[in-house]
Amino acid sequence: MYNTYYIYIMSNLNNTTLYIGVTNDIERRVKEHKSGTTTGFTQKYNCVKLVYYEKYSDIEQAIEREKKLKRWRREKKDWLISTMNPELKDLAEDFSTPFGRSK
User: Fold this and answer.
1) Could you tell me if 63 and 21 are in contact, meaning their C-beta atoms sit under 8 angstroms apart?
2) I need a labelling partner for 30 at 20 to 30 A (CA). Which of 1, 44, 62, 85 fits?
């Protein structure tokens, strides 16, 4: 069986705060962040916008990448986000189509 894991970056609406996480169901996880049902950092800082993600088939690789990104300076994280999402739009808007596939 093939599993997909995601590392993802959420931001607040002003793009001043970033949260990095890992999940095996990005649509569900982002909806949890947006609804505020998950208490903690993202609820406190209103991180409700998906600005970046990467897919992995190996959970160990995904966790290692998450840890690596969390150690990066903010400038490097901003650069990474801009490679995928230069306009800082909410990538969760694409959830109306099967996630990770082109329209």
Assistant:
1) no
2) 1
The continuous run of DSSP H or E covering 50 comes out as strand 49-56
Q: How many residues does the chain have?
A: 103
Q: Which residues, at least 6 apart from 48, have a Cβ–Cβ distance to it below 8 Å?
A: 10, 12, 13, 33, 34, 42
Judged by average pLDDT, the poorest of 9-18, 36-45, 59-68 is: 36-45
What pLDDT shows up at residue 101? 41
Q: Which of 78, 59, 58 is nearest to 69 (CA)?
A: 78
Phi/psi at 81 (5° precision): -60, -40
Model pTM above 0.85: yes
Instruction: Measure the CA angle with vertex 37, ends 28 and 77; round to 5°.
Output: 65
Helix residue spans in 18-58 (DSSP H): 26-35, 41-44
